[in-house]
């Protein structure tokens, strides 16, 4: 498989990791859009949000709670944004689901 994030999970491509367990990896974004900007990805390859199955409910919840905990650890007590893009029209560029977590600055709405 030629998936960038699968290669990070496998250790074939380096990343500045914040956290890793048996289900997820979290690492700093290579092009940060905020003072805090990291990604939470599942170790399991799931291409898009449309591909999530019933069996992935616990994994999706674990991603969200991991994002929440790491945002607090990164000093985002005043607030943060967690976003997941789906397919090209939704802004997805890497086809392995991932959650962007951004914080430590005022975030406008709508985002763009």
Describe the 3D structure.
A hairpin with a 7-residue loop joins strand 2 (24-28) and strand 3. This protein starts with a helix and ends in a 9-residue tail after the last strand. It has a 5-stranded antiparallel β-sheet with strand order 1-2-3-5-4, covered by helices on one side. It is globular and about 35 Å long. The chain has 112 residues and is α+β, with helices and mostly antiparallel strands. It is built from 2 helices and 5 strands; from the N terminus they run H-E-E-E-H-E-E.
What characteristic shape results from the CA principal axes? globular
Rg measurement, Å: 14 Å
Give the strand order of the largest sheet, numbering strands 1, 2, ... along the chain.
1-2-3-5-4
Strand residue content: 15-25%
Helicity, as a percent range = 10-25%
Distance between the termini: 32 Å
| Biggest sheet layout | 5 strands, antiparallel
Structural class: alpha+beta
Low-confidence segments, given as residue ranges, are none
Report the order of strands and helices: HEEEHEE
How many strand segments? 5
User: Helix count?
Assistant: 2
Mean pLDDT over the residues: 96
Domain HIT: 4-112
Active site: 98 (tele-amp-histidine intermediate)
Pfam families: HIT
Protein name: Histidine triad nucleotide-binding protein
Which terms would index this structure?
112 residues, globular, catalytic activity, Histidine_triad_CS, HIT-like_sf, HIT-like
């Amino acid at each position: 498989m030629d998936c960038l994030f699968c290669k990070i999970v496998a250790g074939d491509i380096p990343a500045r990791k914040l956290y890793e367990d048996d289900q997820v990896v979290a690492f700093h974004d290579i092009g940060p859009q905020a003072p805090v900007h990291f990604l939470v990805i599942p170790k399991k390859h799931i291409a898009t949000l449309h591909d999530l199955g019933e069996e992935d409910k616990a994994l999706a919840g674990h991603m969200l709670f991991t994002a929440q905990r790491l945002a607090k650890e990164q000093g985002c007590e005043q607030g943060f944004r967690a976003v997941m893009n789906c397919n090209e029209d939704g802004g997805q560029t890497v086809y392995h689901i991932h959650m962007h977590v951004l914080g430590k600055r005022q975030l406008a709405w709508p985002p763009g």
